[in-house]
Design goal:
This protein has nine helices and two strands. The chain is mainly α and 195 residues long.
């Protein structure tokens, strides 16, 4: 497990603690630990267990969580929070401009549990009535949601590149085994892929 993976786990833990209104001091501590872990020059997975707590920005309780994560592959506290968090709330974390505190308000006070419900509420101007949401923030959230929905099923090249490589390798191996010519037809110019 890389430092980046460990950092992502602690970051998600901090966000879910904020959403569930758990100990805000500890949530900030985990968010800070996530930042510090990501900046460490050497992998925590290769660090001696007794040395983890002495790394910059990592205290004793965070070190215990890191050890649990490295040994078991997950954190029990994070698993508990994930179990009581609706899938749509986790999806809201992916939307730019909506942080854990706003998500908590959206979920607990408005009863909204998905991006679709939130967009519907924005279209009805329901967010404005709640503390921390003005007309500008509602408009910003609406625009972020519209962007999010318009870009679903689209991927960055870096996300698809490993899949493309695997498919082209398998297709090449398949073509090498067959003696049938495979042609890609383009207007007025067939191209053979067997050569």
């Amino acid at each position: 497990m890389t430092n980046s993976d460990i950092s992502d786990v602690f970051s998600l833990l901090a966000k879910l603690m904020d959403i569930h209104n758990e100990n805000s001091f500890r949530a900030k501590s985990y968010a800070s630990a996530a930042f510090n872990i990501d900046k460490l020059p050497h992998p925590l997975s290769e660090t001696l267990v007794q040395e983890i707590q002495f790394q910059k920005g990592i205290g004793e309780s965070t070190a215990k969580k890191i050890i649990e994560l490295l040994e078991q592959g997950s954190l029990s506290q994070l698993n508990e929070l994930l179990a009581k968090t609706p899938e749509g709330i986790l999806e809201l974390l992916k939307i730019k401009g909506i942080g854990p505190k706003k998500i908590a308000t959206i979920w607990h006070e408005l009863g909204i549990e998905s991006p679709g419900e939130l967009l519907y509420a924005c279209n009805e101007n329901r967010l404005i009535a709640y503390k921390g949401f003005g007309e500008k923030s509602q408009q910003s959230i609406k625009e972020s949601l519209e962007f999010y929905f318009s870009n679903q099923q689209r991927y960055l090249y870096a996300q698809i590149e490993p899949i493309e490589y695997l498919l082209s390798t398998q297709l090449g191996a398949l073509l090498a085994k067959t003696s049938l010519p495979l042609l890609v037809t383009m207007p007025d110019n067939p191209i053979s892929l067997n050569n």
